[in-house]
Write a structure and sequence with these properties.
Elements: H1 2-16, E1 27-28, E2 32-33, H2 34-57, H3 60-72
Antiparallel strand pairs: 1-2
Helix pairs in contact: 1-2
């Protein structure tokens, strides 16, 4: 799963550079530019990817070291 999280990060970095939408003046819902909606979706995807990274790829030994040092003090 750790490799999947890294792959999602790479995909998000590539998708962040949206040169294909720079000249698009389409309004979504009559008020939001297409590029702004695209970046809002990229931001939501980045938040979800970060959630996956914390849940599946976070090193467990970091948490245990902090807990043991606090109990020793």
């Amino acid at each position: 799963m750790k490799n999947t999280v890294w792959a999602l990060v790479v995909v998000l970095v590539i998708l962040h550079h949206d040169v294909w939408l720079w000249d698009n003046s389409t309004l979504v819902g009559g008020f939001m530019p297409m590029t702004l909606l695209y970046h809002a979706c990229i931001s939501l995807a980045a938040g979800f990817t970060w959630f996956l990274a914390i849940h599946f790829a976070w090193p467990t030994d970091l948490d245990s070291d902090e807990t043991s040092q606090e109990s020793d003090a």
